[in-house]
Predict the structure.
Amino acid sequence: MMLKTAFVMLSAAQMAAGFSMTGNRNLQNKNSLASIIEPQMKVSSTSLFMADTETVSIEDITAELNQHKQDFDAKVAAAESAADIDKVRVEYLGKKGPINKVMSYMRLLPNEDKPKLGAVVNQVKGELESVIATKKEEMQGADIENEMKAEAIDVTMPGLKKNVRTGRRHPLSITMEKAVDIFTALGYDTVTEAENSPEIETDYYCFEALNCPKDHPARDMQDTFYLTEDMGHLLRTHTSAVQIRQLGKRKPPLRIVAPGRVYRKDDIDATHSMIFHQIEILALDEKGKLNLGHLKGTVEHFLNKCLDLKLRGKWLEVLGCGMVDPNVLEMAGIDPNEYSGFAAGFGVERFAMVIHQINDIREFYKNDIRFLDQFPSFHDEGLTSLLNGDVGREQEEVNIKTVESAVAETEAKPEKKEKKKKQAPAPAGDIDVSKLDIRVGVITKAWLHEEADKLFCEEIDLGEEEGPRQIASGLRAHYNLEDLEGQRVLVLANLKTRKLVGFPSHGMVMCAASEDGSKVEFIEPPADAKIGERVMIEGFDGEPATENQVIKKKMLDKIFPDLSTNSEGVATYKGVVFNTSAGPCVAQKKMPNSPVG
Ligand SMILES: *[C@@H]1O[C@H](CO)[C@@H](O)[C@H](O)[C@H]1NC(C)=O
């Protein structure tokens, strides 16, 4: 029975690995041996024990091999990786493994059984090897999968705050979302869908329907990106087009807020970008229900909510607002005698720049993380909490301080600022009315524009060698054709030639217009003024600018707001009268205190 003993000792390593060998008759024996004999000792002791053994049958050996195989199968089944399989292979098929050891029983076999031993052992060996090969391949696949599983990101796990950068909303997004939230809470509908707020607009929605006819100087100022040669399609220059589209779809009463991207052919600099954002609101109701007070209240509420600030000096620069032009309503098919309302809008970038004391608009588009990091994070509510200090993160502290000082500054000197504004309202550097070449002229011929039903075509004599100029004016709502011939007018003569619905127009006739645009009157030079003489404005006697400079520097934009009639209907620039050799120029019916353009 030495053989059995030897077997038990060979299996000691397996026992040490915690593998149980149920059904083994020598379990007791084996356990005690395993605990006494060191693994290295076992092999040599095996042969020691075997030295005295008499005989063993081939059946005994087969039975033993089967037992090994059974153990082997169990271990393979329990293996969890290719490395585990390798261990099992070395243990069983290695030089010192039980299978090879069985060959040492050769001398104990009866002579007739000796040739069978090799075949028996080899068969088992073959079987084990093939199991190993298959299993190992499987395991390698499983290993890769496990590895991938281990490296996968569990999105349900809480994020690690330390060392991980959390995302933030872009300051422009925060500003827009905040503004939209405030107006939504007041009952305004947000309009952002592409079909209601397209960035590619038609001339009609962007200009024409907004009472900005083809000869209006605002069109030059807008510096539009036109997309088609006939200038019918363009990239919208403002979000006001959204209002017109809504008016075409819905009947008042209505309240809408429209945030969106707009485009201008501006040179990029610290305060200009070719692409920027606007937010506009429009409120329409039965006539008389909404007045300037409501507009003021709404804008104040917005600024209050947004900034805890009162409507003062600085804000006027970023926020434009007014009552809706009745002509605009009429063109949209809404009776201005039935409905009225107000509109307001602001440039998001400018607004954010004032709030956060950012001095370069280009910072918004650089995506410099150091810049973006200074704004409230993704989880934050936006500007309110930033200003209230709710944000509570060290990073933002600097910014809160900046904003607070901005707020303090604005609150400290609103009066001063407003006074300054009245005295020198145009902080436009050296651009004043003298840049405009305003000449005395007379209409020598007039006819109706064939395609544009708002336009007159005129020939106006400015005493120029080349003869009268051709100019188109959108005055058909205010004058009859027969009124025009012989009419003395002032012409803004240094404007670039513009095609107005196919008619090249070489200048602009100056008129006074009531705030709502319903009344328009020619500014008339005195009867004795010389044709072609330049209008003088005391204290502003520079040389006129070139046509290109007028457009490039947006001079009309800067000068026109200061042109108006005084209480006697005399045209003035900052209160200084338009004078000629024969005296001042007056609105035809002396319309007082009205814008001139
Ligand atoms: C207008 O110009 C005339 C002629 O140069 C001059 O006599 C008159 O004082 C000027 N009037 C005003 C108000 O500037």
Observations:
- Residues 538, 577, 579, 581 surround 2-acetamido-2-deoxy-beta-D-glucopyranose (CB under 6 Å).
- The chain has four domains: 3-49, 58-149, 171-199+236-384+400-410, 433-587.
- The first strand starts at residue 189 and ends at 190.
